[in-house]
Amino acid sequence: MRSCRRESRVRKGPWSAEEDEVLINFVNQNGPRGWSSIQSKGLLPRTGKSCRLRWVNKLRPNLKVGCKFSAEEERIVVELQARFGNKWATIASHLSGRTDNDVKNFWSSRKKRLARTLSSTSQPTNKHPCRNQIKQNSTPLPQLPSNLEVPESSNSMIQVGAPSSLTSESIQTVNGSLISTNPSKKSAISESSWFIQHPNPNPAPALSESYNTLPLLPDHHQMIDFESVFAESITSFSQSSFHSTNGYDFDMSFFGGSLEGSCSKSVVVPVQRDPVGNLINNPDGFFDDFPTDVFDCLDPLPTSLD
DNA sequence: AATTGACACAACCGCGATGGT
DNA sequence: CACCATCGCGGTTGTGTCAAT
């Protein structure tokens, strides 16, 4: 069969420097198109698809090769993923020198890391049984500052706790918040990233606005006991500036750079509820991929009837 | 020193969209 | 309008590296 013979000539796997050179020469002469002709002309034993991918992901000019995502790039990815979903090419178009593959790999590795962190920390252990105990709904939520606002049009997913720098005493997160940690546990924190998704399906405002107006605490938000979830990773926090009577310390700059401080014990997450107040998981939400027991530590919010 | 796990990165595959005939 | 080739995108898998044990 002719097709079989042709397929047997197709080379797969890593590209050699010689192949790259041939491909670059081809693009220089013909532009980034007509990929299939590379194989049909016998220039390379690669499919057009493979050639295009190699060019787009590795050989194209002005690519950022071998350089990790900066904190700013991470923030942009998180924001745009929340807005566009898994439209990696669209997201990549907002990041100079990054490809859709870069963004996709970045996101999936971050997602795996978070899932792993959650699945491990949400499992009660014998070591710290009390700290790992899921908070029961008998505990009233602390009163939150009344001047907090949420951009209603925002569909932003914000990243909490991804460090842009580490010292022996603290973590500087991507949004500028400073979290004090137990030095012996900092590596555990550095492996953790938190994403919080705003459920509002409406289009987000322009990036420049939404970056500075990360969602805070309207009445449809809930709290995750941060200390419980991170029991194995965190033993103490400092830098809190809001203290509630039931032991929760808050400082909302944890959710954005415009306010001050950090959230020391709890994480506030926006949620959706049905008409009778039951928690609805966002069907397209990032949390859907988490172990189901992650949500066990969510407290029911007071409804408008309360 | 060997093993293991996590991670980043590269590449492939399947599928839908698009454009030409 | 149908068919086909090509392109582009998103999901997935494979592989190398490095740190921890």
TrEMBL record:
GO cellular component: nucleus
Pfam family, one: Myb_DNA-binding
UniProt xrefs under Gene3D superfamilies: Homeodomain-like
Annotated SMART domains: SANT
Location of the Myb-like domain: 7-59, 68-111
Domain HTH myb-type: 7-63, 64-115
UniProt-listed PROSITE patterns: HTH_MYB, MYB_LIKE
Region annotated Disordered, chain positions: 115-151
Keywords, ordered alphabetically: Nucleus
An annotated Gene Ontology molecular function: DNA binding
Biased composition, class Polar residues, residue ranges: 117-126, 133-151
Subcellular locations according to the entry: Nucleus
Protein known as: Transcription factor DUO1-like
Taxon lineage: Eukaryota, Viridiplantae, Streptophyta, Embryophyta, Tracheophyta
Name of the gene this protein is made from: LOC110795066
